[in-house]
Amino acid sequence: MKSSRITQRIRIAGCAWLLYPLISGAQTAPLPSTPAPAASTVVSVPILVTFDGAEQGQTNTTTQPADDDAARPGASATPPTLTMFPHSDRARWWISGQANIILQGHEAFPAKYSGPNSLTAWAQSATTHVLTLYTGYELSPTTEVFADMEDATGNGIGNANGLAGYVNLDSVRLVQGVALSKAPYLARFMLRQIVPLSRDTVEEDRDEMHLATSVPARRLEMRVGKFDLADFFDVNTWGSDSHLQFLNWAVDNNGAYDYAADTRGYTDGAVVEYDDHWWTARFAEAMMPKVANGQFLDADLARAGAQNLEFEARGNLIARRAGVVRLLSYLNTADMGNYEEANADYLNHTTPTPEIVAARQQGRHKYGFGLNFEQEVTPHFGVFGRLGWSDGRNESFAYTEDDRTLELGGFATGQSWHRSNDRAGVAVVGNGIVAAHQEYLALGGLGFVLGDGGLTYGHEKIVESFYTAHLWRGLFMSYDFQHINNPGYNQARGPVAVSGARFHIDF
């Protein structure tokens, strides 16, 4: 464990890393600005348009920007070079990579009591590393295959316990108290099939999960294999990227979206997506883990599985500025415990402590809904947010222990201060759990993330801000700060302030 001086060094180092590029002003090509509406060559209804640009790694799959788009402030006539090595738009193959290194720390914070799954209250720091190799190949103009290798190490501060909105999305969670293997693993292996439904085409940004640069305006897309559901569902341009933007679990994803995944965040399944000019609908069937936060997936879809449905609409209805709204629903079926039963078994002296594992029953359901939006305010500033709800009766199983969430945030790119490829953001999140879940934790029950041995309930409140400085080509450095009130929904603990420095390279 580190002393409190380490946290101070993190803050000083983070500020020093960022001051250098701000003073020097050294930049390569500009980063695409926050999304702005572009005239479409295919949309017949003038008020329905889409964003013409986004963060690197996001795609524009619905419109073809007008010729005068490059004349907008901050726009570039040529694609920016934001990788260490350029990537071909014509080759049938794709090879790229990234490295994301995050150092975080916090001072000692007040805690009247602590339990097995509490965020440790003494001063500490921790580092995580995620290295990814992305590969893809175009078998035909409408068929693509992808295979990604990943190496992730580092459990994060407190071993990724004690917070519903944990501070580092890159952390490697423990499985029943045991760390995962440190060996590299296959993260994604999937086939993408495009089925044209129209002759008119639109441009699409080429990246590690989309190789075609021109696709039908109306089409079906099917993906099958191993993937991360969060690659396709509940995506937000400004609140889904732990590499260059926010770090918190409840900021980068909807905390109440208990999406199917193993401990590392991946699942096996299929996604079917229908894309039209101004809207998209997608559905996924995926495997659930055999146990909560489990390493192994249940391949018997007749008894366990996850159905996910999302509708996305794009337009410029507010002040003629571009916006997106996404409506999400999900249904999980697995061998889940029930909080009310676990509480009753304890109070009836059937179990010595509240044990959600003892109350598990195959075939139980958990369902929920989500709202996800992003809205441009100026060409270089936008606001975003999420609203999440789950029924909460049955056990939190795959993502985090969160039944209710509300998130609001703002995001800006650096054109206004002549740092075109920099970005900054701030987000506020409130998380909550249902009464039975509260009682379970108050009686001393343990989940796979939370468990202080008791609970003085209060909503978990998170504020996160970051600044990412582009240094050269694919090299970025960031400073991140998070303040959490009532960590793990417990008024008897905290608040805690977490500072972080991030070093990121895109190859």
Element order: H for helix, E for strand: HEEEEEEEHEEEEHEEEEHEEE
Largest sheet: 16 strands, antiparallel, barrel
Strand content: 35-45%
Uncertain stretches:
1-79
Number of domains as seen in the coordinates: 1
Number of strands: 18
Structural class: mainly beta
Helix content: under 10%
**Mean pLDDT reading:** 87
CATH superfamily name? Porin
Tell me the name of the CATH class.
Mainly Beta
What is the radius of gyration?
22 Å
Strand order of the largest sheet: 1-2-3-4-7-8-9-10-11-12-13-14-15-16-17-18
N-to-C span = 33 Å
Short description:
The protein is mainly beta and 507 residues long. It has four helices and 18 strands. It has a single domain, classed as Porin (Beta Barrel), CATH 2.40.160.10.
Keywords:
507 residues, mainly beta, 16-stranded antiparallel beta barrel, two-stranded antiparallel sheet, 18 strands, 8% helix, disordered N terminus
Overview of the structural elements:
8% of the residues lie in helices and 40% in strands. By secondary structure, the protein is mainly beta. It has one domain: Porin (Beta Barrel). The longest helix has 21 residues.
Explain the layout of strands and helices.
Elements: H1 4-24, E1 93-106, E2 124-140, E3 143-153, E4 185-196, E5 201-203, E6 214-216, E7 219-227, H2 249-252, E8 267-275, E9 279-286, E10 305-318, E11 321-336, H3 339-347, E12 361-378, E13 381-390, E14 404-414, E15 419-432, H4 435-442, E16 460-472, E17 475-485, E18 496-506
